[in-house]
Amino acid sequence: MTDVIESGDIYFFYRSRVEVAEPSSLEDIQTFQLVMIADDASRGRMMTVGKKRMPEIVAEESDASEREWMIIGAVAEATELGEMLHPFHYETKTHGERRMGEALPVAEARYAIVMKDGSSFLTYRLHRPRDPGSVQETFGIRSSAGYVIAIRNPELDVPGFPSDRPDYPKGLLAKFADERWIAVDDPSLLDYENAQLVLIGATEEALDVGGRLLQHRTDLFDTLGLSSSDWPTGALTDGVMAAPEYRPESFTPRGDPSKGGRRGGKRAVDSPSAAGVAHALKGIDFPAERDGLVERARENNANEAILAALQQLEEQRFDSMSEVEMALGRIR
Asked: Strand ranges (DSSP E) for 101-256?
């Protein structure tokens, strides 16, 4: 028996690295994000995918071969989420003003979150493009798919996951009990910034949710209050990697611009949390080595707690802020 917990529209976006004029691969991508707008809801969610692509799905294997984490960076009105997709400017100490291009649409679909046999699943069916092209393949976007979806207990540490925590009320916290992960049996679990989820590839076909629930046509530009004439749509319509054109009006991001989410408060900025580290590394160019992270944090006058955390990282190349956060999660 399949019970539909929530349904709506889901949109896939990517944003190129600041120094990349013509992106051609995942190495050229800063962030890969999903925007979910539930039916009959004006507010939606913006989620950042850790490794910038959807998990692999291996046919005829019941065990998951791939999993990927996501963090909810923003919960806001649909048009406000649309504003967060605009290009923006920010200042750096070493390079002056830098420009980050607009987030580009790569797919739009109908989704449903369902409960089946005690587990929750995120399933979707593409509306545009109908037939995924090379750019959709790059991001692991299929014409239809199903993933086991679970949400992390914010009061228990999970190695490899960012340290930010959602501000759940007691009623929702009680759902977790002593479990590290629980099924998404209540959509309000997803309505808090910093909530963290894991996706596990399950099926190449959309789950049977009955009726025409996944067949309804949607339009991301209307829903998010964006002008289609200002947005490059090559990825969405032709399946090819498009480049930002900086035509939409710029906005001023709040918090870490690389994540599309929002962070606030001096305490958050001063702590060795993801918010504090993102502030300390403001203006850094990825890829970067550990010593480069430490140097930039010193240039930005980071406090000793943040410097000490960065110095504990292994010597390796970091391709994004998300990779830095995951590495910090492993040593906390």
From this structure: 104-116, 119-128, 144-152, 181-183, 196-203
